[in-house]
Amino acid sequence: MQIARTGYHHTKWVLSLVLFLLSGSVFALDRLYLATQEWPPYQTVDRGEIGGVAVERVQCTLRHMGQPYEITMMRWDKAQLLVEANKMHGYFSGSRSASRELYSDASDPLISEELSWFISPNVSLDLDDESAKYKARFSAKFNTNKWLNLKEEGYNVVKKPRDSDSLLQMLWQGDIDVALEYRLVFEHSMAQENIPLDYFRRVPYGTQDLMVHFSKEFLRKNPVFLGNFNKALKQCL
Fold this sequence. Notes:
Layout: E1 2-6, E2 11-15, E3 32-36, E4 44-46, E5 49-51, H1 53-65, E6 69-73, H2 76-84, E7 90-94, E8 104-106, E9 111-119, H3 132-135, E10 138-139, H4 145-152, H5 164-172, E11 178-182, H6 183-192, E12 201-215, H7 216-221, H8 225-233
Parallel strand pairs: 3-6, 3-7, 10-11
Antiparallel strand pairs: 1-2, 1-6, 4-5, 7-12, 8-12, 9-11, 9-12
Helix pairs in contact: 1-8
């Protein structure tokens, strides 16, 4: 598990067990505990150093607030479960959903990102045709809003990729016909594999906002925090 700790003016990385997760609520502490996943180019770890546009905006915001914090990299599903269980104060970056709003409130957007369909060059498909959702094999990153929405809308979802790299491999090797992913994320994975950016047919799907989601219990005990966070965030976009 990788942890970034900072006071007001410095940041360092350590590898350790997060003991506070074993001791119950963290709300009595004066440090803000946030969870995230490694998700290039938004959240990255390179030679032990945290980076990515989303991380940098969160760090900038908390510096403006004078708020000490700790960011822990972990699996995305675990990050959400720990916030739901009031073991962490918040997680990022994620879109809104009805399930997340049951236990958390979202900040103003950190990022507004373009979603796209990426279609195999061997597949002839009209996505405006309602029957396309049954004819083709679709996927997105497993257990995300994208994957769940495809299932709920009746798409033929056939795989459960753990990340965008796995999703790319499935599309490239012909295990699926269409992938749904954020454009920058998928193109980053393509660049890592030296796949030309025009190799797949790309069809825009829409734009989605990605936010920090803070525990409702934490915000109940700190009622001015979210407003102050959003105010400081505007200076960092």
